[in-house]
Amino acid sequence: MPAIPAPSETPLRRITLDLGGCSACEACTSLAPEVFGWDEHTERPRLLQELVPQDLAQEVISYCPQDCIRFDDDQGQDG
Ligand code: SF4
User: Fold this and answer.
1) Which ligand 1 atom sits closest to the C-alpha of 17?
2) What is the CATH number of domain 12-71?
3) What is the pLDDT of residues 30-50, one digit of tens each?
4) CA 69 vs CA 16, 47, 49, 66: distances in Å
5) For atom 6 of ligand 1, which residue has the closest CA?
6) Percent helix, strand and coil across the chain, each rounded to 5?
7) pLDDT score at 9
8) How many angstroms does the Cα of residue 78 sit away from the middle of ligand 1?
């Protein structure tokens, strides 16, 4: 029997998108098109879902060059 990867082994985390510094590089939409859609009017990404598996969220956060994507529950950090 083939092993089927479990789709949600990691916890879901809520993320936010702050487009203030977004450079429209589209890294987020390329990495996770199920999470980030592309708004053709603003020419910026938009969130399609706020709850994202933690591993995927961590990956898109690390790939965004402008630090637009954050864990919503990461409040209380300096800055
Ligand atoms: S990866 Fe970051 S900078 Fe690039 S389009 Fe997405 S939000 Fe904007």
Assistant:
1) 7
2) 3.30.70.20
3) 999 999 999 999 999 999 999
4) 6, 10, 13, 8
5) 28
6) 25, 25, 50
7) 72
8) 23
